[in-house]
Amino acid sequence: MRLKDKVAIVTGGSRGIGQAISELFAKEGATVIIVDLLPQGETVANGINATGGKAEFHSISVTDKAAIEGLFEQVNSNYGKIDILINNAGITRDRTLEKMSEEEWDAVIEVNLKGVFICTQAVAPYMKANGYGRIVSAASNVGLRGNFGQTNYAATKAGVIAMSKTWTVELGKYGITANAIAPGFTMTDMVKKIPQEHFEAIEKSIPLRTVAQPIDIAYGYLYLASEESRFVSGICLTIDGGTSR
């Protein structure tokens, strides 16, 4: 098992890519702490436990600094360490530049950027004390190339990449790596709602001619959270079927 005896916190771990990460990490031997506001996180944790894995669910917003700090302190106290932080929680509020409201801008920045900052700041002292850590944060290929109607989302994902590179420099001497993953179109609930004609056009735009499944992205997270990536830090791993070539 590639994550045997590791303790992993996964934000946004209740559905889509986050659920795939949670279930894969548990299968690979990690104790998984799912942090999400969606109630189905309880179902995901129960499913992991029912199949012999170890998981907990905590209904907390990544934007609630005090609650996140309290949870991370509790996890570290219960397990003696926190090995892995997966910053996966995120939202979209799409609108073209001229139509985007300040509230739509602020909402996405609050969760996708500030939430990642809050969680990483909270986990850093425990990883430093342990001399070990893997931080992997959700970027997007939109953060590399932009996308129509996603000024706010693209800005947060580019920011996640920049923060990860900064943490590489600041935390590397403590045995902590920091990386980002930039998925392309992935078969999540949001993508399933795209009209069929638009979906077909999206598939044709991808060199591999298909969108990713959540597990395709989860395997990238597994690599960057495992011992196999010991000397990999400060990268943005793009998993988008060749779109961002």
UniProtKB/TrEMBL annotation:
SUPFAM superfamilies per the UniProt record, alphabetical: NAD(P)-binding Rossmann-fold domains
Pfam families tied to this protein: adh_short_C2
Residues annotated as domain Ketoreductase: 6-190
InterPro entries cross-referenced by the UniProt entry: KR_dom, NAD(P)-bd_dom_sf, SDR, SDR_fam
Family indicated by similarity: Belongs to the short-chain dehydrogenases/reductases (SDR) family.
Record protein name field: 3-oxoacyl-ACP reductase FabG
Taxonomic path: Bacteria, Pseudomonadati, Bacteroidota, Flavobacteriia, Flavobacteriales
Gene this chain is encoded by: fabG
